[in-house]
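Researcher: We're reviewing a set of sequences before deciding which ones to prioritize for further study. For each one, I'd like a predicted 3D structure that I can look through quickly. This is Protein translocase subunit SecA. If possible, include the structure in token form so it fits the rest of the review sheet.
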Amino acid sequence: MTTLMARFKQRMRRFAQKPGSVDLAPFQAMLADVEKHADAFKAFSDEELTEHATKLREKSTDTELVALTREAAERAIGQRPFDVQVLGALGMLSGLVVEMATGEGKTLAGAMAAAGFAIKGKRVHVVSVNDYLAQRDAEWMRPLYGLLGVTAGWINGSSKAEERREAYQCEVTYAPVSEIGFDILRDRIVTSPDDLIVPEPEVALIDEADSVLVDEARVPLVLAGSTSAEAADPVIADLVKRLRQELHYEIDDEERNVFLTGAGSEAVERALGEIDLYSQEHVTSTLSKVNVALHAQVLLHRDVDYIVRDGKVHLINDTRGRVAKLQRWPDGLQAAVEAKENVQTTESGEILDSMTVQALLSRYPTRCGMTGTAVAVAETLREFYELEVLVIPPNKENIREDEHFRLYATLEQKEDAIVEEIKTVHETGRPILVGTLDVAESERISSKLRAAGIECVVLNAKNDAEEASIIADAGSHQRITVSTQMAGRGTDIRLGGHEGEDHDRIAELGGLYVIGSGRHSSSRLDDQLRGRAGRQGDPGGSVFFSSMQDDLITQYAPDAEDPSEVDNDGRVHDKGLLHTFEHAQRVAEGVNLEIHRNTWRYNKLIEHQRDILLKHRDVVLRTDAAFEKVGEKEGVSDEVASDAARKITLFFLDDLWTHHLTFLSDLREGIHLRALARQNPLDEFHREAIPAFNKIVPESWELTREKYEAAKITDDGYDLADAGVKRPSSTWTYLVHDNPFGSGLEESMKGLVKMVRGQRR
Ligand SMILES: Nc1ncnc2c1ncn2[C@@H]1O[C@H](COP(=O)(O)OP(=O)(O)OP(=O)(O)O)[C@@H](O)[C@H]1O
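Model: Here's the predicted structure for Protein translocase subunit SecA, in token form for your review sheet.
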């Protein structure tokens, strides 16, 4: 009877669990095992604890490890991890992505897991999303690692090579995902094994896992070498400013493509001195420049896609609402936006190598992670990373009240209603956080508030330096904070001010009230924003406002019907339309998944080729393989000859790979034309990419032999640069912002949206 009952209970539990996640029950059962060790560890002195951790290295169970790290956390950090944090740590040690709500203490749970892996003898990279968090979390958790005898370090964008090497030597290294990628890319071109920095990847513990593994997975990290920048043509930039929508150009529904009309082409041809844009001479140069300039002018919006600060164009990361440091568009587009804004062209350069975030993280044999929102992307995590999600319940029950969203006919009516709502709630003294979709909207709403005599604080990509102090006060009495998605993640808003001094009064008022000024393109972003209220069992509330003119509708559900039940203030009550938003969000998510899938299909082959080439390169780097291939050189010692042969070979391998990447990228750009010719574009891509790759190594030997014979090499030295074996004088790194223009994939966006819309119906 009892077993039947237990089985029933377990089934009920599973039934109640979120779909797409793994069963929590076995982990809950492990809690009792963790408890068994508790008393013994409590009795240890600090020295005994450290010693025990060292002994555990060989043989240990996860429960014992977690019990030990819990004891160490209490002593070193002054916080005894809650059971939910213990569950989180156990989940990560089992290679899962754990979903833990906002403010549940993921930083500590992550550190317990990282320490556990380290004690088991694995090197861990705690992958953060930015410099600030990498440093903050590493320093915050350092005493915990110290007590467990585990070494820990961190890296940020300003770390010097030596500091990086030292940090990577630690058992646990906190680093932003982009910095790890850049280090790997730089390691790709070293000519002496002593210059290598990043050790073999073992465990990646990924913070904000959905954001890194899904939203940013396609972002290419780039290593570029010096060549001169190609400036955009100011005449063309000026010319497109004078073109008019509908008459000279048209924009497609999804606002991803812009096309010249007949009249537009004629106007451009006239302005450029009666040229023929479609002639052989102009079609690839002038016409494509005009298209890129038009794209920069019409589709990329200042204060939405980028801001201009200190005479520079700074891109905005659209899921985080903050400046995307180090990020740029592909070269032509970057220069065109700079020309549009009349700022100096930034240096571009030849792309020596690049890899996506997904490829980077796929290198780790063990991966795990944590985030507030994982279940919604469980399918994607499984498909691309073979990762499963474990949902951890909150420490204290969530009592936040989430209202149903309010829909308005026009943007104007929506914003007026938001201002009204703020006014009413503000009178009670309750703190309000308004989350906006972009910088421009945060500025519009704040100026409307000020015009109504209401003070508010704005947080967006333009004043990100003040972030910490703004967030520290966002939960205080009467405070109104208007923020882009910056406040959506990783920010801990305490009720009643920084130290929670006024907590009880604010709690009585109902806690933090979150107002979303629009639904995001992904429900996860909505959830992240809502999650700022009601942390750790606090009271709180949330509501979202939307309008039929929001991008989500115009882009992903353009055929939505006009509302029929509308109040005087524009509030819409049509039931069907309320569902349209959920539908549009699912379409947007579906389109992103499809793009991700498609990009990965191509990238998989490139990654496979990179892997093969790198293995070969490593042999050349570490052995005398090159010398054995090209033979002795008369009058030169074997040591010098081997060194020269190695350097020449590495040069050609790298150079040929760079060219191969350009070839692949051009191939991909053009591949959609094959689709028109009814060939499968991916098959076509493989058909050309594989033989091209297979030529690289033989060609590198051939070129090496020629150069080696011709080069003047003596025991006193040699100058390979003199012989044309010349590496870029400087290199730098950046991230490429999604190219919304020109690739075959985007050309077929329209079809993709239609297809996904059809599937989701
Ligand atoms: N076991 C604990 N006991 C007491 N306080 C804790 C404990 N664990 C974490 N905290 C506190 O809870 C707060 C939130 O922790 P943390 O920032 O790690 O949360 P989070 O889960 O990362 O939230 P977010 O989703 O906002 O990133 C911190 O102030 C931390 O000091």
